[in-house]
Amino acid sequence: MTAVTWVALGLTLVAAPALPGIVNRTKSLLTGRRGAPVTQLYRDLARLWRKGTVYSRTTTWVFRIAPILLLATTAAAACLLPLDGRSALLTFAGDFIAFAGLLALGRFALVLAALDTGSSFEGMGASREGTFGSMGEPALVLCFAALALATGGTSLALMFSEAPSLWSADGPALAMVAGALLLLTIAETGRVPVDDPATHLELTMIHEVMVLDHSGPDLAIVQYATALKLALFGTMIVDVLVPRAGLPVAASLAVWLVALGAVAVALGVVEAMMARMSLARVPRFLVAAGILPAFAIILLLGSAG
Amino acid sequence: MTPLLVGLALVLLGGVAAVALARRPHLAARVFVVLVVSGAGTALVPAVRVLRGAALATIELPTQVPGGPWVMGLDALSAWFLVLILGVGALAAIFGAWYLAAEVEHGGVPQTQLGFAFLLVALALVVSAQATLFFLAAWELMALACYFLIVFDHRRAEVRRAGLVYLVATHAATLLLIVMFGLWSRHAPDFTFASLAAVAGELGATRSLLLGLGLVAFGLKAGLVPLHFWLPEAHASAPSHVSAIMSGVMIKVGIYGMLRLVAMLGAPPAWWGWTVLILGAVSGVLGVLWALAQHDLKRLLAYHSVENIGIILVGLGAGALGLAYRIPLLAALGVLGAVLHTLNHALFKGLLFLGAGGILRATGTRELEHLGALARRMPLTWITFLIGSIAIVGLPPLNGFVSEWVVFQALFHAGLSGTPAALAVFGAAALGLIGGLALLCFAKVCGTVFLGHPRTPAAGDAVEVPAAAWGPMLALALACGLLGVLPGIVIPSAARVVATVAGIPADVIGELTRPALSGAARISVLAAVLLGVTGLTAVLRATAQRRTAVAAGATWACGYAAPTTRMQYSASSFAAPLVDVFGKLAGVTVERTAQAFATHPANVVLDRALEPAWRAVRRAGARLRPIQQGRLQLYLLYIVATVSVLLLYLAVFGGAR
Amino acid sequence: MTLLALVVVPALGAVGAYAHRGTAYRTAWLLGTSAVHAGLVTAAWVSRPAPVLGGWVALDDLGALVLTIVSVLFLVVAVYAVGYLRHENPRGGRAFVSCLLAFLAAASLVSLSHHLGVLWVGMEASTLAIAPLIYHRHDRRSLEAVWKYLVLSSVGIALALLGTFFMATAQFAVPATDRPLVLADLVGRAPQLHPAWLKAAFVFLLAGYGTKMGLAPLHTWKPDTYGEAPSPVGALMCGGLTALAFLGVARTTQVVAAAGLASFAQPVLIGFGVVSLVVAAAFVLGQADLRRLLAYSSVEHMGLLVLGLGLGGTGTYGSALHLVNNALAKGLLFLAVGNVVLAAGTSSGSVRGLGRALPISAALLVVGLFAATGSPPFGPFLSEFIILRAAVAGGHTTLALVVVALLATIFAGMAVSILRVVHGEPSPGIRPEADHAWLVAGPITLALTVLLLGLYVPAPLGEALRHAAAALGGIAP
Amino acid sequence: MTTLSSLLLTLVVLTDFAILGTSRLSTCIRAIGAQGLLLAVLPLALHPGWSLHIIGLALGTGVVKAVALPWFLRWAIREANVRREVEPLIGFTTSVLLGAAAVAVAFVVAPRLPLPEREGTLLVAVALSNVLTGLIVLTSRRKAITQVVGYLMLENGIFVFGLTQAERVPFLLELGVLLDVFVGVFIMGIVVFHINREFDTLSSSRLEELKEP
Known about the structure:
Chain A is mainly alpha-helical and 305 residues long. Helix content of chain A is 71%, strand content 1%. Chain A has one domain. In chain A, helix 8 runs antiparallel to helix 12 (282-304). Chains in contact: A-B, B-C, B-D, C-D. The interface between A and B is large, with 89 and 88 residues. Strand 1 (53-56) of chain A pairs parallel with strand 3 (550-553) of chain B, so a sheet runs across the interface.
């Protein structure tokens, strides 16, 4: 844990809202529109932060605490990732479980908040979020397992700092893990083709319909936390793909930010090329995300044996 | 050992007092609680001392039957389970005194208190018995005491049925144990555990048979799939504080049996480890899946017991693989995970069942679709129930997370071991899925029971339970929180248990579990970070909101003007997407009409396999019935036929000496 | 003297009871005689009397076990009968008490006989003494029951007589100084007995006494008889009479084992055991009538007894112990059912809610259920455990598993039938006076004893069991 | 084995066939009485020493089997108003054929049995014949009273076998056996009497109320 780690964390917190912007901008450009600027989310957040809040009379303190908890868990999860490519603020054997657990706690809070409103729409969204979240969980664990097998470490810091240097040996396995992480990023952050943040039909929504009742600063916190989550998943992809352990500190951070942007662009490309798929097909998408790292594990076990 | 005996005697005395003072129910309840709590406290003293490293103690009971003395002893393994039994037991007793007060005029309350005392004592004896017959006697006492608690409300047919299914299942387990111990003891001079353990090396192929029989017998008690069939109904039927004991403690005795078996038989063969691991994973996934399909609160919680037994068994299976393939680290972590989760599950499941009992008393129903919005009416129940829910889902910073974290590490170390055990790493995926599904399920429970609008007037008029009820719940919730935030305080004790089970010296285990211990310290830091960031964000939002307007309004209904409570998402519909994904495996029949959507869960194993099998057995029995049709001449013919067959035998084998 | 007194006292008691008309007098006579008998048995335990009548009558450990079982059970039944006769007034009350005491005399004779012929005479006498007791209600059903009982038992016992003669024939090669059919001489010179005749004797004695024990498929009289007999008589039959019959089988096995022919006898005994368990399981399932249920349960326990005997080794010890436990547990269960019948007027199993309406008897019924099905820590568990252990120790693991499956089925069947009447909302018209002290004191004693025997086998009993097992060619565990 | 005893034994078998073949109850009872008489004479013929033991046995057998029991059975028939037909479950011809087969089996088996003295062969053959025919009567006749007769035939067969051991088996014992048989048949007779009072006909096939549903 060094100052660099803190700097990296700060950078993440600051840069995160830019990522959805990049995704949307890429998508717009590819579909022949100008689209909103990359900094759109910063503006939205600032505006929301200054707005008033309306709380439904049905809701309880759960609804009020949920956005805070969502952000807190995501931020705490950020402390576990080796954002600077070397080490994390907090690292211990098996911390990947804490990472997954923290994200799940945030989801749990948000789902409960949705149910707190007593609205059938938000209940519907909560149900979908919980369902797809639960099916993404094994895929995420398997990704970590594949990385652990490849690197021999059981902490996120070890996994992600070692992984990129193993491309020569375990390239196919790492590629599969990176692919799975990309699929998971799409699912976890509610991007096309799993979910469409820009849709206007509540019946087809997942994440957005769940936060219908949040307003003002609460909504800002939720949106910011989602962006932060995107940054975290993006960082994981970057850390699998890009070896930056050997680079000087500044270069490492720069490479990271650029790569993160590239991930966002990639997501934008996916969004531009694909249509939103039907809800019934989402489970298959998530199973695919799980099968990839499972194959990776089999490959790794085969090469080890 | 003396405090243990004195404590158990006090507990028993409490039960007897409840019967003796049956005419003065208030006094009886108070005396019962005082005696049971003080008895449990007294008996806990030696258990805690053993867990902190004190020497083992044994005594012999003054029995005289064939097969050697009835030895009673406390090692770390016994002590660990004793803590859980007496701790949860005492709290459940307090809750139970309140819970049963409403039933006094229906009768049967004093007997139930007595049965409860018997159950606690029997549980304590099961884990401290160190001789076969003593163990079996305690085991059966436990089973029977529990049966009479389950059928407390025996006027209802479904309760009687649940009791009967339970009784037959537990008796089958007992019989299997008899066969197991019978097989085992044929090599031993007597039936004490010490003698049995001493001959473990000479068993040869019998060892595998013993492990197989033990797995089935103890698995029946623990409720692992597909032997869980008795569990949901039984747990749902019993009075809630008894459900807490059953789910929290009694099924753990099955786990205790498996651990004791491993401790006595030494390293199990690899197939056993794999079987346990796979059955654990299957139990975990199916348990939570079937839980999702339920809308009876207590039955749902019961299915979650199946799920958690699955998690424990995944840990135990990994540990057994570690022993089989001689990977000490894997053995240590796997068993540690199992042991820790046993304790943790007892705490949060006990808490949840007590909560369910409170809800049942406050609203008169356990049907999720009839509840709602209790968070406002029963704030303390809600907070404690929420803590239990977060814990059971395995989320940080509560205790469920800690044990799952250890189990995950065991599976990852299996993957890194470079042995055939590496395939166990796929168990991690199952654990991940279990966690995700559990989250969904408890979101459903918390959401439909406590949040939103009340679905019935009964739910709307609910009143918070008194201190006698929320006190025990709060204590359990605090324990969940404490073990989640400071897991380091129990890991050394758990390591001693692991040493007993795995047969590894305590100092080596200490070395092996050091990473877990240091990780536990980091988990504490993480909890602090989480708390800090939450506080910071809360302050930030507060500042933002101080400057802006905060208004109250109606829930946004996407433009629809007059939403009613009937439009709320129901428990059935909440779980529907997932149930759809798993199809037939989920064991649900769906009823979909234009106006309503409802799911009807089935007990897959009981309804689709055992009931038909039972009917087939009865039909087969009925086939024999015509032989007893009342005609004397026919009966005489049987005698003639029998003698003829015997004479034939005589003719064939009669000649030579 | 003690030995003869054991037979003569109840025989005189039978005559004495018939002599007087007053009911109170007769019950006192019954109680007094059974108490004296129990006292004599105790005396026999304290100092073992020497054989009398040229070794025809003697007391060995196996006989002492049976004698004690019968005496204790009889005392309990006598106490129960005091309460019972207040509610039910059997026609020919004089004959009732007389026949009970005659049964006791015959049973004592059987237990004490060390001569297979005397054993047979006693056995026939006990069979006949019971017959009028079954018929004490003088209606069609009891008439049918007693008829079937008489014919089937008589045919069985005739076969046993043939077997007894075969046994005498087997002795043709032994020196003339040997006393024919005297147990000590048979056992002492067993290797010189003619094997073919000995085996034939075994077959017929087993079939004969097996009919009396109620081994399937020779059990057919049992459900009808138990279903109609008055409860005290039923208790005596399923605890006492079966023990006597088992003694007959055991004596035969004793000779066969001493002759080194155990390998011939064992498969037959095991076969009877398994068939009995199968039949018991089939008929226990869905059996509504409580007393018929007990009859099939008795078939089950008889099966276990011969199973243990057939397994040899520690199995014989298990059988000897199970003999004691079975008598206590079944006696308890039968008397508890008797209270149900007194209270509800029927044993058809249609009553409900006895737990509320008749708490003590219902509790006894439940205790009896668990005791009789071999739940720890009751005594039958211990003996069943030893028998099952003998099975696996003898390499019969499959057999043990089959037996376990059957035991589980029987347990399920019995639990369903018995718990059904205990639970639920009480049926109207249950007479609570069946929980009277006279009617529950005996069963409570039996319940406590059967529980105690699971925890503490007194040293003299343990010693007797050990010797009995040794006599049957086995060993103690 | 004297000629007389051989003759007596042959007559015993003939009485068996008489019982199997007759349709009249009174013939049945007369035949069983005759059989009892033959059995009473048999010990005297077999053991010419005429010891006290043998004389006592003959007397006892005569009194019980030839006099008391037939008289008692006849009394039961009369008092209970039993119809005089035998009511077999299988035809009389079949019964006789079965009986013949049983006797054949007995005579085939008996010489193969390892007997101490060869002369006993006929005795054993007749004993087995009686046991088997007794069982046939027991299982193939409907009326309760015929079953008593069948039981008596069975007992008589065993008695004949017992005569091979008459020297060795003590008198006291044989007395006990006789007494038991007597009491047994006596009780059976009483039951038969009651059965007839309860049911209008003395057919035991009406006694089928107690059974599993």
